[in-house]
């Protein structure tokens, strides 16, 4: 993610078209906002359009606007999304959902920046920065002739992929704490924190809903928490890859395999697991890890682990 953000910062100040890919809930909309905020157009608007929510017969009206009387129900003139985003950024989410019949109309705007308002013969020159996003495999849609290849190449001058949350172990606990702070502030509740077992439970979970699921899960835990600490039970995690009651990896399911992480993170993980297994008994945990008691204390201090 650090490498991705560095790349984004490098090109954010240009007007190049960007395509964001990744599963639902990985943060594509947030990244689009981040790009806009670091662009030359940040003082102008960011117009967000969910392409999957636009009916095929309303596509031209939604995107390019219409004049009063342009069609039967056009009782008032309407400004389209391209015109609303003038001098700013237009974010087209779920871009793969555009009907094939409408893709040529979008392609024309991207090729020469020109469009007409429905019911008008006047050509308008568009000045926008375009960011698109999809959770679909556009290459497969192209093979099935459901998405125009020339449109795809117009959208993805640069393409960035957001990994699943389960691939971003370093982000899980900090994101959880961010959401705890966000929702305790939103609902004016007392500050609370994750216990060690809850942190490990979050790391062990498979996150099919990615960051969106984490946000909803933490919001629920904050609202239902009866004390200053969020426990494994408060999280109420569900799914095929279950975690045990203490929040550790289930050895039967995981077959004793440690997920890929840095050596430092692995050391922290193993220390936490040893402490969980021994109920925070330092001498016993040190024995499990093959360390002396003083060596374990030094590592706990080094990583600033709050285990007492």
Q: Could you give a short description of this structure?
A:
This protein is of the alpha/beta class. It is 45% helix and 12% strand.
Please explain how this structure is put together:
By secondary structure, this protein is of the alpha/beta class. The protein folds into 3 domains: 2-163, 3-Layer(aba) Sandwich (Rossmann fold); 165-256, Helicase, Ruva Protein, domain 3, CATH 1.10.8; 261-308, Arc Repressor Mutant, subunit A, CATH 1.10.10. The protein contains 15 helices and 11 strands. The chain has a 5-stranded parallel β-sheet with strand order 2-5-8-1-9. It has a two-stranded antiparallel sheet with strand order 3-4. Strand 6 (114-116) and strand 7 (123-125) form a beta hairpin. Helix 5 (100-112) crosses helix 7 (149-155), helix 8 packs across helix 10 (210-224) and helix 14 crosses helix 15 (293-302). Mean pLDDT is 88; it is low at 240-257.
Write the layout of secondary structure elements.
Blueprint: H1 2-12, E1 18-21, H2 28-37, E2 46-50, H3 59-64, E3 65-66, E4 78-79, H4 81-84, E5 89-93, H5 100-112, E6 114-116, E7 123-125, E8 129-134, H6 138-143, H7 149-155, E9 158-161, H8 169-186, E10 193-194, H9 196-204, H10 210-224, E11 229-230, H11 232-235, H12 251-254, H13 263-277, H14 282-289, H15 293-302
Parallel strand pairs: 1-8, 1-9, 2-5, 5-8, 10-11
Antiparallel strand pairs: 3-4, 6-7
Helix pairs in contact: 5-7, 8-10, 13-14, 14-15
């Amino acid at each position: 993610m650090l490498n991705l953000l560095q790349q984004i910062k490098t090109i954010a100040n240009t007007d190049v078209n960007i395509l964001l890919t990744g599963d639902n809930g990985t943060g594509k909309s947030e990244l689009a906002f981040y790009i806009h905020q670091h662009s030359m157009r940040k003082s102008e608007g960011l117009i967000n359009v969910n392409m999957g929510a636009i009916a095929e017969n309303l596509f031209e009206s939604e995107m390019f606007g219409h004049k009063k009387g342009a069609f039967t129900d056009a009782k008032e003139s309407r400004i389209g999304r391209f015109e609303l985003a003038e001098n700013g950024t237009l974010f087209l989410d779920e871009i793969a959902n555009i009907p094939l019949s409408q893709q040529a109309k979008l392609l024309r705007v991207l090729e020469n920046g020109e469009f007409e308002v429905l019911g008008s013969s006047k050509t308008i020159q568009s000045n926008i920065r375009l960011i698109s996003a999809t959770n679909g495999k556009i290459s497969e849609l192209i093979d099935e002739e459901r998405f125009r290849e020339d449109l795809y190449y117009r959208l993805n001058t640069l393409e960035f992929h957001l990994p699943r949350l389960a691939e971003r172990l370093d982000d899980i606990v900090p994101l959880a704490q961010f959401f705890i702070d966000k929702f305790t502030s939103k609902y004016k509740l007392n500050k609370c924190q994750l216990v060690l077992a809850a942190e490990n439970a979050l790391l062990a979970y498979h996150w099919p809903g990615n960051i969106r699921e984490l946000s909803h899960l933490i919001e629920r835990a904050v609202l239902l928490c009866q004390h200053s600490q969020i426990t494994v039970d408060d999280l109420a995690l569900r799914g095929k890859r279950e975690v045990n009651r203490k929040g550790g990896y289930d050895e039967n399911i995981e077959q004793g395999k440690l997920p890929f992480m840095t050596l430092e993170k692995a050391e922290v993980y193993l220390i936490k697991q040893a402490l969980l297994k021994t109920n925070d008994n330092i001498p016993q945990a040190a024995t499990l890890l093959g360390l002396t008691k003083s060596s374990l204390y030094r590592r706990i201090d080094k990583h600033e682990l709050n285990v007492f």
